[in-house]
Amino acid sequence: MMEPVSSSLNERLALGKIVLIDGATGTDIERRGVPMVENAWCGVSALTHGDDVRAVHRAHIDAGAELLIANTYASSRHLLAWAGHENSFEEINRRAVELAIQARTEAGCPDVLVAGSMSTTRQGGPYADVDVARSNFGEQAKILADAGADIILLEMMRDIEQTEVCLDAAYAADLPVWLGISCVLIDDEPWMIDGLIRLDAFMHRFADEPVEAIAVMHTETRDVDACLDIVQQSWHGPIGVYAQSGNFQPPVWIFIDVISTQDYADACMGWIDRGVQIIGGCCGIGHEHIAYLRPRIDAANAAR
User: Fold this and answer.
1) Residue 224 and residue 279: Cα distance in Å, rounded?
2) 231, 216 in Cβ contact below 8 A?
3) Cα torsion at 292, 281, 300, 291 (round to 10°)?
4) Can you give the pLDDT at residue 274?
5) Confidence label for 1 from pLDDT (cuts 50, 70 and 90)
6) How far is CA 88 from CA 23, 31, 81, 91, 250, in A?
7) Is the pLDDT of residue 36 over 80?
8) Is the pLDDT of residue 137 over 60?
9) What is the pLDDT of residues 195-236, one digit of tens each?
10) Inter-axis angle of helices 89-107 and 130-147, to 10 degrees?
11) Least confident stretch, 122-136, 222-236, 264-278
12) Integer distance in angstroms from the first to the last C-alpha of the chain?
């Protein structure tokens, strides 16, 4: 039987190798001119602009990404309902995974992983009721798994109760689970991005969860090191970083003061020096950043 690609990835991480994932799909789609949707950002793009979504995935593969994150970050049922697209919930999520799989097939890169993203993002609104969120995330995780996702990636977690619900849903899909957390410095102390709970309190609750990796993501480059200090105190498995650059003014990303490819690569190599093994980019970090990183990651891996 062929070894699952996720098992191969875990073996590489166990050997100390660095894995390069993709940059931001949503903002690369926006840069191509795809309109963002009020209350759901890029959450419907897989249905309305599938060719653009597939092209962005292909650009990241061509840049050297070893994992694609399907465009489902803002495609929870409750967000789509708020945006008026609830009836397309299953189709949007299934199609998003299929587009990423098509991109890797077209590229002739069968070892590229596809992660299905789930997020508790509110897009400026309230959190979903816990029971509603439990049902919606459970359904979403099953759709992502059935569509062919290799991993469930929880992104921009920032609240204990909602994260617990999202994790339970992801575990039920019987796929590897990665946990992505978003942080911000307040008075030089790391907090979750909403500023309602300290990062150390969040990690105290979730550091013993059976996830396969924890990533600091959608966090400003300048804040990452302080956040890594806290994560590395309590989590000793594989750690990832995919930072952001720019500013979100719902429903669009503002590409202002976006970090250069060289400066971002320099920051990434610094994170690698302190033990980070999974590197990529979040909002504002495009496929050109990934392409610039690829030879530096190759050189670092050759030296290990």
Assistant:
1) 12
2) yes
3) -20
4) 97
5) very low
6) 26, 24, 9, 5, 22
7) yes
8) yes
9) 899 999 999 999 999 999 999 999 999 999 999 999 999 999
10) 30
11) 122-136
12) 29
Q: Do the beta carbons of residue 70 and residue 43 sit within 8 Å?
A: no
pLDDT at site 8: 84
Q: Which residue in 167, 257, 182 sits closest to 224, CA to CA?
A: 182
User: According to the model, what pLDDT value does residue 200 have?
Assistant: 97
Q: Is 108 left (phi over 0), alpha (psi -120 to 50) or beta?
A: left
pLDDT band for position 6 (cuts 50, 70, 90): low
Q: What 3-state DSSP class applies to 273?
A: helix
**Cα separation, 296 vs 283, whole angstroms:** 21
Quick one: DSSP state of residue 125? S
CATH pick for 5-302 out of 3.40.1190.20, 3.20.20.330, 3.20.20.370, 2.60.120.260: 3.20.20.330
Cα Rg of the chain (Å, integer) = 17
- The ranges assigned to domains in the chain are 5-302
Please state, in angstroms and rounded to a whole number, the distance separating the CA atoms of residues 274 and 281.
18
- Please name every residue paired with 143 in a beta bridge, in sequence order, or none if there are none: none
d(CA 255, CA 110) in angstroms, rounded, equals: 33
Given a cut of 50, whether residue 288 has pLDDT beyond it is yes
pLDDT at 7: 72
CB burial class (10 A; 0-12, 13-18, 19+) of residue 216? buried
Write the DSSP string, 127-145.
PPPHHHHHHHHHHHHHHHH
